[in-house]
Amino acid sequence: MESYITPNNSVPSTTVSLTVDNINDHNKDSDIYNNGIKDSSKDWHTQPIDSVIKAFNTSTTHGLSTKEAEIRRELYGFNELEGDGRVTWFTIFIRQLADGMNWIFVLLSAVSYYLEDYITGSLLLALAIVNLYLAFSQEYAAEQTLAALKSLSSPIAIVIREGQEQTISSREIVPGDLLIVKEGDSVAADARLLYISNLELDEALLTGESLPVQKQLVIIDDPEQPLGDRINMIYSSTIITKGRGKAIVTSTGMDTEIGKVAAKLNDAGDGDRTRLQKSLNRMYIGLTVLAGILAFIVLASVKFQVQYDIGMYAMTAALSVLPAGLTTVMTVTLVMGGKEMSQQKAVVRKLKCLETLGSVTNIFSDKTGTLTLAKMVVVRFWVPQEGDFHVVSNGLIPEGDVYQINDSLESNESVISENNKMDKMNVSDSIRDLVYCSALCNVSSIHQRNSSSLSNSHKKSQQDIKKEMENGEEDWISNGAPTEVALQVFAHKFNMGKPDLNAAGWIQLAEYQFDSTIKRMSTLYLDQQKNKLTVFTKGAAERILPLCYNIKDRQSIMKKVDQLASKGLRVIALAKRHINNTTANDQQQEIFTKNSEDEEDWSKRYKRNDIECHLEFLGLTGIYDPPRPESREAVAAAHRAGIMVHMLTGDHHITATAIAKEINILNDQLLKSDHLNQWVMTGPQFDSMTDEEVDNLPRLPLVVARCSPETKVKMIQASQRRQLISAMTGDGVNDSPSLRIADVGIAMGKNGSDVAKQASDIILTDDNFATIIRAIAEGRRIYQNMQRFLLYFYIILMSLALVVLACLGLRDPSGLPVAPVSTIQMIFIYAAVTPPAGALSIQPASPTVMEEPPRPPRESILNREILMDTVTYSLLAGLACAAAFFIPLYTVNGHGVEGIACDSNYQSGLCDAFYRGRATLLVTYLLCSLVVMTHCRSYRRVEWGLRGLKITFKSRTVIGTFWFDIICLVIFLYIPQVAIQGFRFLGITWEWGLAVALTIFFILSGEGYKFLKRCLMKSMETHMVDELLIT
Predict the structure, then answer these.
(1) According to the UniProt entry, which residue ranges have a biased composition of type Basic and acidic residues (predicted)?
(2) pTM summary value
């Protein structure tokens, strides 16, 4: 149903300037107002539309001006809810304050004070405060970044301002705006309807009603009518499930019905915590328990006879495995990864998908606008009476000559004869009817950015237009689906565009929207000059031809369809029907000036099934949508990464096959294969198969033509039964089920509906398939970096913990164990190893990241190779550190620990070897930590060759940390009071050489271990999908 409200002459047709003063003046004189138009309690559903328009000082044709919108925004604020789920700084602070790690440091600080070690106690307390501050600042910055990312994916709205349709952010809508809604939109604000076309809404969020509500243009008398029965209103956050409409915004922000109950769907919260984050939290708890066990072991070794030295040893053992800041760094890594992806035009709505991206094995992609440019143009048309015609394409510019060509379709512009050029001002009836259908069975529009008239544009020469396009000066704007825009441009080239025909007396009475299940749409028009009703229908040829009465040889027409489709053209069939027994009398024409309650419901009077029959076939149009230049390489990159690409499209199967070949989804071997019908199917064919039959296919089809939303759902379910990880693209409201059940749902940012965006995990701001591949590469990089970071952290912790445990057998003359590392040294180690860990979390991707197979989804982040690396590097680093401690302790005038309680009471000569051993261990450990960082950059590649050394010496983190460590060590080692009373060690001499030698040993042994892995372990690179498909 399509219904209008046209206000009477008393209603202003132009906007009235709005200021605070004239609002107050208007309030005094109008009984519509109650404390100004901000009074959202007004029962707008009970008011005539004329009163609503007058109350908001707006226009049904021009809407508001930009200046008026800004004034109203200052007056009423942004259209957003308060307390919309954003995390405040106080919440983050409380969350970090409750972090158990901080309280462990406070507890250890209290123990130090109890043992009268005030320096260590103060440092531990300072560490707790610094850790709290850093964790808070990092998480707060991450939340701010996440909020910014979410704002990028916030809903948009279409309004009419200054007489032009404009796309704006929903938060910028103000009362009085003229709002346009269509299928798939999330309504941006409460509004009073003034035009509808088969409009239905899902209002379950507000009313709990599960069925869509059909809207009508009526006046409701009861002010207390329930929300669900206010059928002349639309409400914020409800979903348009069908049709289109135009409405005047009555309430925004907290004044909307959804604002009154403070309810809005919010994606934040624990539900967005990734599997990795949850596992890290468990690991965090496990390491904390391990710290307690180590402290217990130390105390148990002396039968719990605690004194200062033993207490310090127990604290050192506990600190050696505490991963301070681990979860915070991981959260920041994920958020910053999401920020990086947004810069590559992929907005992450849910952080959990970043992990899944690295596991994607199959991409199910739409064709139009994703693999292709969505710059559709009509380049061919065919009418039965006259044959084939070629249309010169100029993009959106409605100019281009038309030539009659032969049936071979091999002709092109270079061989087209001027003798066959058509006079577009003098066309046959058959071509005129085809053009009329293209223009009127159509809801799209085109206009110039600079308000130039069509007539002026028609006067441009072909050379001028080509020059414009070459210079990038095309200033035409389109609204609507790409296919319909192409047909509208085609009609404009004949000066028969929809505006021209409307002006000539063609009035639309009803629209029967495109239905993906029947693959067609229709419109009902009144020709006022002839007082006749005409139905125009367009759609898929196989759905239109059976409805037509004037077809003698359907096979020949389908052959023509296949011929057009084989060139990669989308073929649209067009038809019409005169409703001969019904004429439009004067009374019927008067409906356009009556109130809505007197209008006839044309779509109810003429049912779809009754009018979409006995049609007159008019002809075919061939629409070309060129593949994106980058699509072929992006598909090849996916294949190299072990990812299969499937194209799901509504096109004819021959068109789909031609495009798939062009971008290499189908290669020559597959096209020559005897089993091509397994690789290319139609939606009905696939839907008719049972689950068992689908599961018995060697692989899922690579191309599915005439695909419906239900086909997409079935495809995802089939991939899940095969344990595949799928990424699905979608843009329509009907795509939301497949987007929700896919492992990674990807919505289109430009042409996608709000429903599709809300159901997705990622939104592509450029609708480009290549962006999906970049997002997968970024997801793999993020996951790799998390693995690198964790590997580094585990090696650092385990190697030191091994040394601490090994030294439990080392005793002083009194029989008490002595710690190889003092507690203050542990605090310094925390500061020294943190920068390399952070640097690993932001490393660039490895060169082979997109040449490796997808990561198994069930694989732990600590996979077999990482566990091997952790154990091997920890043993090697632990061995080097143990040697650094024991060699000075027992050689070169060293005779072990000769002093008693050296930690609490330094005895010159007796504790010297022990103190020098500690110093050498610390130097070696810090140098080895930098080596560990370089080893962790790659699992198998040489990092200490010429290439790796260049990267190392260019790293500000490595160089900065190295000099920080050296400067601190010089200060701590060679200022006696700091060395002896603070860190409990002494300055060293020849031991520097020992530390360097042990570091070189660690470098060489690590590279030797990588060499063995390269020789003995399976290559990490994958075979191309092309090779897999033909084996």
Answers:
(1) 461-470
(2) 0.72
